[in-house]
Specification:
The complex is a heterodimer of chains A (351) and B (111). With 351 residues, chain A is an alpha/beta fold. Chain A has 16 helices and 8 strands. The N and C termini of chain B lie far apart (59 Å). In chain B, α2 packs antiparallel against α3. The chains are: A alpha/beta (351), B mainly alpha (111). The interface between A and B is medium-sized, with 17 and 11 residues.
């Protein structure tokens, strides 16, 4: 398993932004598979337009303690892109005035940003209804300074959303690295111990399931049932909901697909599973994604492809919700990942 | 034409059989889809049965399809291999139980 990001390995996919070339070319260019824009045009959804903003998703940095094989962020310990306090202040100004009801912090491991706790404290005062932190779980056990994260999350009533690729050790460690499963189990038990994930608790603990390979996630509720049963029986762990998220062909997952000879089959699977009714609720229609350096994107995936919003407002310092909402969302073939099957978003399936 | 009998890319074209017989093709795929829905058996259990049968009928397309389907449903490799053994045991049992016929015939013909 790789211990460095693609960027640190000078992989052309990310350093020369070859990703869009791949997603626009090959089987799409030669007409074997349709372009995403043509598919959504058939149901009158092109250009795709935002609805009311509901979720402000802020990526506070690409640094992470893990180097997961499927990571579309290409996050890792060697990534130095970290949101500064100055950009965080610009974000806070927006959080205080936004109409969005959900604030969603992601990374990398957001907790590794040196100003993370300060930012959470400040942002929680803005009174957003749902304040999510996407925690990879192992960070809680990575270093003593993170041991009290469960208490910290509880203090600010943070909604914890954590990745857990499988309820078995082998599958988890294969995707996320040796020892990740045991650390994740320990972290979940600690979150349960302070009240997270308990049936009647208001301390929300949701898990994210990403397939560990070149296949799509199955039915979200069936997977949730299997996860709940196994985690309860084996470790007495409880959680609220499972979000089944489709891996999008970006960064390390794209690199994996190509290196393993699965790229074309995977794109076929995504296109075959295209579900027109998922288009209406794709997350880019109610989300704005902010990068570590304050640029604005339609979603975290477009952020990783370097596709800034098609609006005259492109940076958090110039933020204007009304102007931003009046834009066309940028699409490419990776978008088939969000419309496959029951649809996929950072909040799980969308239909 | 491919120069071998089985081409993995042909699996994607399975739906094309409807083009030469629309009514029967459509009826088959409707039936097929219905069979694998959640019912008295879960979709997960049916996927494992399909995987076992895929091996017994030695259909490479079905093996590819139901290995992938199993992964999508979170089925572990241990469960998949046990399902294959269940199929193999029935298949070898079906051969071996004919041994009784052989024994009957042998005994009848022998003094």
């Amino acid at each position: 398993m790789a211990t460095k990001s693609l960027k640190a390995r000078h992989n052309a996919l990310v350093t020369d932004n070859k990703q869009l070339e791949i997603l626009e070319g090959g089987i799409f260019e030669n007409g074997e598979l349709p372009y995403f824009k043509d598919k959504i045009a058939q149901i009158g959804q092109f250009p795709l337009r935002p609805k009311t903003l509901e979720i402000l998703q802020i990526n506070v940095g690409y640094m992470c303690n893990q180097v997961c094989e499927h990571c579309h962020v290409d996050a890792g310990p060697d990534r130095k892109e970290i949101m500064t306090r100055e950009t965080m202040e610009q974000c806070l100004e927006v959080i205080r005035n936004t109409g969005a009801h959900t604030l969603d912090l992601t990374g990398g491991a957001p907790e590794m940003n040196p100003n993370f706790r300060w930012f959470v404290e400040e942002a929680s005062r803005a009174g957003v209804k749902d304040f999510i932190v996407r925690s990879n779980l192992t960070i809680i056990r990575a270093n003593k300074k993170y041991y009290n994260l469960p208490e910290f999350f509880k203090k600010y009533n943070i909604h914890v959303v954590s990745s857990m690729p499988h309820y078995t050790r082998g599958k988890t460690d294969k995707q996320r690295g040796e020892g990740v499963f045991d650390k994740s189990i320990k972290a979940l038990q600690e979150l349960n111990a302070v009240g997270y994930g308990m049936p009647d608790s208001s301390l929300r603990l949701d898990l994210v399931y990403n397939p560990s390979g070149a296949f799509l996630p199955g039915d979200q509720s069936a997977l949730e049932r299997d996860f709940k049963k196994a985690l309860m029986e084996d470790f007495e762990i409880q959680f609220h909901n499972l979000f089944a998220i489709t891996n999008l062909p970006i960064a390390r997952f794209l690199d994996y697909l190509m290196a393993s000879g699965n790229y074309e089959d995977y794109m076929y699977s995504l296109v075959e599973a295209y579900n027109p009714s998922a288009v209406e609720n794709v997350m880019c229609t109610n989300t704005i994604s902010v990068s570590w350096d304050g640029w604005l994107y339609d979603c975290d995936f477009n952020q990783m492809l370097g596709l800034k919003v098609a609006s005259k407002i492109k940076h958090i310092k110039d933020y204007n919700e009304e102007v931003l909402t009046d834009r066309n969302i940028i699409v490419s073939q990776h978008c088939f990942g969000c419309t496959a099957g029951a649809g996929s978003s950072c909040q799980g399936s969308v239909t | 034409m491919a120069d071998s009998y089985y081409d993995p890319a042909d699996l994607r074209k399975f739906g094309n059989i409807t083009e030469w017989s629309e009514e029967l093709g459509t009826k088959f795929f409707d039936y097929y889809g219905k069979v694998f829905e959640e019912g008295a058996l879960s979709a997960r259990e049916k996927s494992l049965i399909a995987l076992a049968v895929a091996h017994v009928v030695k259909c490479p397309y079905c093996i590819d399809a139901y290995t992938k389907d199993g992964l999508q449903k979170g089925i572990t490799k241990e469960e998949m291999m046990e399902a294959v053994h269940a199929g193999a045991a029935i298949e070898s049992g079906a051969t071996l139980v004919h041994g009784v016929q052989m024994m009957n015939k042998y005994n009848k013909l022998s003094m």
